Amino acid sequence: MARPRTISLDAMGGDGGPGVVVPGAALALGQHPDVEFLFFGDRARVEGELAAHAALARTSRIVHTDITVAMQDKPSQAVRRRGSSMWLALEAVHKGEADCMVSAGNTGALMAMAKLCLRTMPGIERPAIAGLWPTISKPCIVLDLGANIGATARQLGDYALMGAAMARALFNVERPSVGLLNIGVEEIKGIEEVRQAHAWLKQSELPIDYRGFIEGDQIGQRIADVVVVEGFAGNMALKTAEGTAKQMAAYVREALTSSWAARIGALFAARGLSALKDRMDPRRLNGGPLLGLNGIAIKSHGGTDAFGYASAINVGYQMVESNVLERLAADLDAFHGTLHEAEAARKTS
Amino acid sequence: MARPRTISLDAMGGDGGPGVVVPGAALALGQHPDVEFLFFGDRARVEGELAAHAALARTSRIVHTDITVAMQDKPSQAVRRRGSSMWLALEAVHKGEADCMVSAGNTGALMAMAKLCLRTMPGIERPAIAGLWPTISKPCIVLDLGANIGATARQLGDYALMGAAMARALFNVERPSVGLLNIGVEEIKGIEEVRQAHAWLKQSELPIDYRGFIEGDQIGQRIADVVVVEGFAGNMALKTAEGTAKQMAAYVREALTSSWAARIGALFAARGLSALKDRMDPRRLNGGPLLGLNGIAIKSHGGTDAFGYASAINVGYQMVESNVLERLAADLDAFHGTLHEAEAARKTS
Q: Are the beta carbons of B240 and A216 separated by less than 8 Å?
């Protein structure tokens, strides 16, 4: 049996605050009884919620703070709130008091604070945000979902390795398959950075199964464990997919309530439709790691509920369990070494 | 009654060739009896198809050519096929023999040929491809869907005016609403070009109702008639939305065939589900204009059927009817004039 894991939680982050974070932790504890939680936030509110969760209350600690980061705070303001629940939860990871942290707070603030507090891994300029993407079979990992705008070829290569590290942790696969998102209009097949990254990923001896270019409509076909894209297009793809899914769900609802016959039909099909609803449930795939930092930080959706929050904790737990960062550091080092050699060879030739 | 419209068709373009193009034109003729079609392609095959469509055969002309552009041809190869059905159909527009053209052929080849044959409008560096996007209410227009990678602020401004011109033609609205697609992570709210375009669109006296930034998940909410985005992210958003829609449709199919009860339910709900299917039918929204050229060229999806092809013809017809290009040229001229003055003012101050 593994040693107890400690997960620090920004109890004040997200729309629900402790009202979501505490019951979420209780659900996660049910799945992972070896976890100890460290709550940062308003003690009275956290204790109030813990009253309903005896097992969780027994093994948790609370560190009180009055300071919180608001959803509308600018990252530049937020990083000055060093005593905030978000900062303290990150600091617990930095100090080794926690194995990972989860926050449902402001994404920009969390990224800015995480960079300051945990620092980026050697050779990494900018961390990325990854996420689980629903497909026709099991989910895949997509990154960057918007931590950065634009990406150099080297950064796209870094993303491939970061995503592969996450895939190893979550999908239990040793050599994850990776695709590079690109657009299909022949004339202009991809920007220079994407083409260069493609060349590197194809040639290099990386511990991934590189599948080449894929297009946006193939993400959902589960062609690869990991899909790499720069953050502007990645965020847009994510948001557009979310919007389309909501729109389709509304269409289906309308179709099945459009007449009495349709409603009776929906009753007969209730079990199938309920499975459909589960399948489309975004809470199951909540939890996006910030990758490229010296520590594991998970962003939970701000509007999620306890079930969704528990999913985010679970992502963190699995990444801790599989020792993601050590392996990733070695992989990044090898990749950067290859680039360095190639550059040196180019200069002397 | 308006004078007869002439529409030139690349009869060999697309997966189905004349087998789709001719019946598509027949359907379009049913809606618009004042149209005369000009088919470019293999005379025997076009005549063979026309045999089943007497009314169309009476009013159409065929210009024979053996030369075709293949789906896998590179644009640089394709532009050398000056006698091809695609080129000749474009040339008919250039020479004033047709009011617009439609092709279901290779997108990259069509764009490259259109630039050479029709030339870009004054002040326009790069044409864009626009498309109709399904929303919860009527469709909206999104551009650029991938003609160009990246866009300057000025080009994004041009796209806004091009999209507005198309909206006037298709939605019968004098002052179309326009949104600029951006990403929502606070820290890095958009790239410089998008921010600059936002400032210009907000301030300038353009004949549009500018609604500011919108995010990808809002496209389907019908917040604006026109959504502007650079082509890499735009193509990715389009493809991702298509993929998500297909994926959801597969989920729904599975849910409604998962058991006997579900199948009985689907029978009861048949009418509602059939309306749902119509609503999700991509053929209804087929037809993406290439905008920013001295002539109207419509790209049809390569894999569509006669119904979808007729939709693409209809887009061209409506754009011809509303004299899109004249008005657009004036709007672009005014916009570029404003930019020029602003630049001059900046230099002298």
A: yes
Average pLDDT over residues B183-195: 68
Structural domain for A32, as ranges: 1-121+292-321
Measure CB to CB from residue A244 to each of B220, B266, B275 and give the nearest one.
B220
Do residues A143 and A85 share a domain? no
d(CA B200, CA B342): 10
Determine the distance from the C-alpha atom of residue A38 to the mean position of all C-alpha atoms in its chain, rounded to a whole number: 20
CA–CA separation, A333 and A345 (whole Å): 18
A92 and A181, same domain (yes or no): no
The reply to whether B300 and B199 lie within a common domain is no
Q: What tens digit of pLDDT does each residue of A148-204 get?
A: 888 999 999 999 999 999 999 999 899 999 999 988 644 455 678 888 899 899 887
Asked if the structure places residue A338 within a domain, the reply is no
Report yes or no on B250 lying in a domain.
yes
Question: Phi first, then psi: what are they for A175, rounded to 5°?
Answer: -125, 80
* Beta strands at A226-228 and A288-291: parallel, antiparallel or unpaired: unpaired
Is residue B48 within 8 A of residue B36, CB to CB? The reply is: no
Give the mean pLDDT of chain B.
Answer: 89
Residue A328 lies inside a defined structural domain of this protein: no
**pLDDT, tens digit, 9 for 90 and up, residues A3-45:** 679 999 999 999 999 999 999 999 999 999 999 999 999 999 9
Question: 62-91 in A: which are within 8 Å (CB) of B?
Answer: 74-75
Q: Is A271 in Cβ contact with B262 (below 8 Å)?
A: yes
